[in-house]
Amino acid sequence: MSDDPDRSRGGRRGSIFWRRIEELADSPDLLERARREFPSFAALAEGSVDRRRFLQLTAASMALMGLTACGLEVAPRDRQPYVEQPAGIVPGRWRYFATATALQGYGTGVLVKHEMGRPLKIEGNPDHPASLGATSAIGQASILELYNPFRADTLTREEAIAPWSAFTTAVSERRQRLLASRGRGLALLTGTVTSPTLLAQIGELRRDYPQLDWYQWEAIDREPARAGARLVYGRPVDLLPDFGRADVILAVESDFLESAPGHLRFARDFASRRRAVEVKARMSRLYALESTPTLAGAKADHRLALTPVAIEAAMRRLAGMLGAGPADWSHGADPQAKALDAIAADLRRAQGRALVHVGAAQTATVHALAAAINHALGAYGQTLSLIEPVAPPPQAGAALSDLTDAIAHGSVDTLIILADNPVYAAPADLEFARALRTVPFSVYLGEYADETAEAVHWHVPRAHEYEAWSDVRAFDGTISIQQPQMLPRGERHSAHELLALLSGQISADGRAIVREHWQTRAQEAAIPDFDSYWMEALRIGIVRDTAARPIEVQPRADLARSLEPAGGAAVRADELTALFRPDIYLWDGRFADNGWLQEMGRPFTRLTWDNAVLLSPRTARRLGLDTADRVEVELGGRRVQAPVWVLPGQADDCVTLPLGYGRRRTGPVGEGVGFNAFELRTRAMLWQGQGAVLRKLDGRYELAVIQHEGRTLGRDLVREGTLAEFLKNPEFLHYGPAAESLYPRYPYPGIAWGMSINLDACIGCHACVTACQAENNSPVVGKTEVWRNREMHWLRIDRYYEGPLENPALVFQPVPCMQCENAPCEVVCPVHATVHDSQGVNVMVYNRCVGTRFCSNNCPYKVRRFNFFDYTASDPRPRESWNPEVTVRARGVMEKCTYCVQRTRIAMIAADRDDRRIRDGEVVTACQQACPTEAIVFGDQNDPQSAVARRKASPLDYAMLGELNTRPRTTYEALIRNPNPALGDEEEGGHA
Amino acid sequence: MTAIFSRRANLFVQIGLALLVLGAVCFLLLIWGVPLMNYNDQVSFTPRQPVPFSHKHHVSGLGIDCRYCHDSVEYASNAGMPPTETCMTCHSQVWTNAAILQPVRQSLAEHKPLRWRAVYTLPDYVFFDHSIHIAKGVGCTECHGPIGDMPLTYKATTLYMSWCLACHRNPAPHLRPRNAVFDPHWHRTAATPSGQQLMALYHIHPQTLTDCSVCHR
Fold first, then answer.
1. What is the spatial order of strands in the sheet that A302-305 belongs to?
2. Does B203 contact A912 at a Cβ distance shorter than 8 Å?
3. Which residues lie below 8 Å from residue B174, measured CB to CB, with a gap of 6+?
4. Which chain B residue is nearest to residue A776, measuring alpha carbons?
């Protein structure tokens, strides 16, 4: 093993990858930690456990070891067959039911995997346009949410448990009064609504109560995009970008890979033009302008880290150059002028095949500028189409602030809240909680007994999406009917049932409401056989032909004039720009009680169980701050205390405040985790605001990070190059010593399972990690244990930086067990607990494992996980929610990725039963199934026609640490970037 | 000078040594003997059931096929326990008032499942699949013993891993033609294809059958 990077990379000059800032700085502390692979052993080495105590513990554990063998091997059990077996239920067989999940009001189709009537796993619905078979991390974790025992299930009146009848009586009385006053004083607060049934119900309510006021509010809304569309077209429209058709893409702090409605679809389309071996010269090029790192920025070929003010200036310059605005916009000094000129030239070259996409957090002006540029580039009808807004835009005067004003004027006496937790997430200057407490009659439909539930009179527990009937529209307008996967526990109800109650239907049933709505629609559309129409919609998960049709809208002629620079206030040097951004997993805080999402390392910071204010290295140095320092953030006179995280790639003078943490009331998992950035967020600064001041406090904060010690030490874990190099010589990354051995290779004549991971396609979204956790019964270990490096994910996504500290390029590399043919773990196991099977999978026999952890010590990839505690026994989730096809591990055993051995075995049994060869694609691993970009391919590598064999035949295929001669079955396809030659020579990796 | 040890000290030492040896012998006998008793493996143990169901009567006497009640055995991992309504297909017509069938009628009337005591239970880390064994010509009686002649069902085999492996290492003697899989009284005859022939016919490769991942996931 060489420490000289050049030598081990086959003499190729290349970029040195690093993972943490300290690595670049060659900090002696880090080197020391890197030397010891397991920092947690330090306590032993430093003598905090003395020799006598150590021997005592050893003797005691030896003596007690025998006791575990006592007793009957298997406790006797009962078998309880059905009285009447429901049709289609076969014990030991999976069934799938289609439904959809909604976030920000937009739906994503899913298939829920059931065994014996129990929903157990979420998969994407291949027929749904927003999923195409993929899921997000949040989608995967929704099953844990369903089983969360801490979701509210009792109706409360002023926080005391009340019977349902008391609530219906109270509502009926209200109803009589409201009917008499034609609904005066009745207000309804919802989130973004796309559900046709709910919209119809609100319309019905309006008939009963003509003076009903309907307010809409979503903590993380898409209002800037709507406002941008209003600027351009004079009315709101929705954009449908097609990333598969775009040759050159400009992403302006774009959320198209992480959270925009339809992001799974966008990621699939984007990746279809990025797998270099497949698309060759057709590979698209992605530019990113952003203030805080996004997944799109991480995949960009060129990325500029700019403050929001600079982003607007850059967009204006681009508009000027591309003829979308006055030409004089393109003059003037700009430190990024060279890069912007090159981007503009590239966009212009790709006329008709270019696309500008703007994230939800940008201002309306930036959205409008992007629309103007897209028009100038001829993107409409090519890479972009317009549709009528999927979610009806809120009327003027229907914002949350209007509601607070109305309450202050005393004109609201009955308030029904269907929106998610406004007390926690409303702009701080609204003081919504105080206003809410003055409303004479308030009802909140919420999943948890949260901050809003304690401020209202009646808290009705909301049924989970998998517990209730509803319908929802996707980003492109496609409607899905959401069907419950289990009956709601306790007194949980859906929004439909609550509104029906308000319409005077005392015992309304969600199914009847949704079905009746669709029956009416079917009659209007003259559909003859409603039952089969309805059943088909439920079965395939979408209602056919409901996608919105593209519309023709012309931009306003005086567009450019309306976008004149406003000439905002000058920014003071000592003040920072605060950026409010949703957490990628907890979103606006609604998923805070989900242990899987809390423990998922954030793609950039790798933080778990906490949020931190993000600062660029230069700004942190200027302020004398370092990672894990505690600071007080002041913005507009409001203060919060938070830890600092120094994040390369963050724009200078910008401080990102991740939302969604610091929940005061939710379940026990999410309470008190992190700091609440909503306390600083005001109406004027929903996304960004000037004037943040950071003051250093004493002490340091313990941040739990999914990080593995160790520099890369010159080992080329990630191979990468440029498209130009690849086109010149496809084999250019094919180097390194051929693996040779004195021993003959072990033959695998039958099936040889293998996996290939395409680094071009991986966007670092962590859907695969969550899917793995769901499939393989991986426990949640908690912050302290993560801090001790004891997280239990079988699959991790390593994040490497490359290039300059201020604006590095990023690489995401998923690392499951490599299933080495020459597995280093196997030779050191004293009890043969880890051995190979005939398909070449390195299997783990939990019952043999005695927990020496030698295997983990000897694993060069560090993918083995050890159960230090009986995590599963202390897990509050109900037993029936674990995957019955996978052993639930006990304390003291090692575990790791098995290529989803349960899935391969079930498929092999099915094939063997029919006496046929297993088909390619018949086994899909959990990570592969969830992946939106098809980065992971799995199959029989002995079959030359299989997808995995074809991927492994790629000239870019390489084995990580292949020089160790481990012969891993998981190999990677090297990362190919497509930098603009006009910018490429400037700096390493082409990053400006 | 007085003696440190009394006169009887030797005796105590001798008794002590004898007890030690005896103890060691008993311990060894225990280790050797306990597995021979059927306490651990529960073989031939007949659990008390809510209804004294007789496989002998139903299978050998009436000739009902195994699959009439265990209907998913050919295509699912779980053979399937019959729902109450399966019992009632016949017992709504015959033995309608028999006292021993009262729990079955009660189950149907109250819509509460019958609670059968499991005779065969595998640990949670073993994933057994009935369907593949049926498809490969392993008869029911290979594991369930003379089930067709059991008035009350008892456990016929140990289900020890060594017992599983004996067959997985050498399946030939345990195979039969597919049409005889459900025959509780099947015997190998001169006309029966040999075990080796059946292995070739079923594409059984014993060298892959002892992989850990065949049963453990």
1. A302-305, A285-290, A248-252, A354-358
2. yes
3. B138, B139, B142, B167, B195
4. B217
**Beta carbons of B123 and A74 less than 8 Å apart:** yes
CA gap A137, A587 in Å, rounded: 11
Stronger pLDDT, A36 or A282, i.e. the higher one: A282
Q: Which of B:191-210 have CB within 8 Å of A?
A: 202-203, 205, 207-208
Q: Is the pLDDT of residue A70 over 90?
A: no
**Residues A521-565: pLDDT tens digits?**
999 988 889 999 999 999 999 999 899 999 988 888 777 777 777
Alpha carbon distance A927, A929 (integer Å): 5
What share of chain A has pLDDT > 70, as a percent? 91
Nearest to A122 by CA among A590, A595, A466, A486: A466
Q: Are A458 and A487 in contact (CB under 8 A)?
A: no
Tens digit of each residue's pLDDT (9 = 90 or more) over A898-919: 999 999 999 999 999 998 999 9
pLDDT for the residue A568:
55
- In this predicted model, what pLDDT tens digit does every residue of A845-880 receive, in sequence order? 998 999 999 999 999 998 999 999 988 888 888 888
Angstrom CA distances, A827 to A588, A836, A856, A857, A970, stand at 48, 11, 12, 12, 20
Q: Is the pLDDT of residue A186 over 70?
A: yes
| CA A136/CA A771 separation, integer angstroms | 9
3-state secondary structure A811-844: EEEEECCCCECCCHHHHHCCCCCEEECCCCCEEE
Q: Decide if A901 touches B, using CB distance below 8 A.
A: yes
HEC profile of chain B: CCCCCCCCHHHHHHHHHHHHHHHHHHHHHHHHHHHHCCCCCCCCCCCCCCCCCCHHHHHHHCCCCHHHHCCCCCCCCCCCCCCHHHHHHHHCCCCCCCHHHHHHHHHHHHCCCCCEECCCCCCCCCCCCHHHHHHCCECHHHHHCCHHHCCCCCCCCCCCHHHHHHHHHCCHHHECCHHHCCCCCCCCCCCCCCHHHHHHHHCCCHHHHCCHHHCCC
Instruction: Write out pLDDT tens, residues A381-420.
Output: 899 999 999 998 888 888 999 999 999 998 999 999 999 9
Give this prediction's pTM: 0.90
Secondary structure of residue A656 in the 3-state scheme: strand
Q: What is the 8-class DSSP label of residue A493? A: B
Q: Which of B163, B139, B213, B206 is nearest to A906 (CA)?
A: B213
B75 close to A (CB below 8 A)? yes
Asked if A296 contacts A288 with a C-beta cutoff of 8 angstroms, the reply is yes
Rounded to the nearest 5°, which phi and psi values hold at A543? -90, 120
> Cα torsion for A75, A81, A86, A87, to the nearest 10°?
90
Q: How many CB atoms are located within 10 Å of the residue A203 CB?
A: 9
Listed as own residue / partner, the contacts of A583-586 with beta carbons closer than 8 Å and 24 or more positions apart are: A583/A611, A583/A658, A583/A659, A583/A660, A583/A661, A584/A137, A584/A258, A584/A259, A584/A295, A585/A137, A585/A138, A585/A141, A585/A766, A586/A660, A586/A661, A586/A670
Residues A816/A810, Cβ–Cβ less than 8 Å: no
**Contact B176/B204 with Cβ under 8 angstroms?**
no
Contact at CB, B83 and A84, closer than 8 angstroms: yes
The span from the CA of A407 to the CA of A431, in Å, is 12
- Separation of CA A214 from chain center: 31
CB contact under 8 A, A901 and B115: no
Contact A76 B121 (CB under 8 A): yes
Question: How would you write A292-358 as a 3-class SS string?
Answer: CCCHHHHHCCEEEECCHHHHHHHHHHHHHHCCCCCHHHHCCCCCCHHHHHHHHHHHHHCCCCEEEEE
Could you say which of B84, B85, B213 has the minimum Cβ distance to residue A843? B213
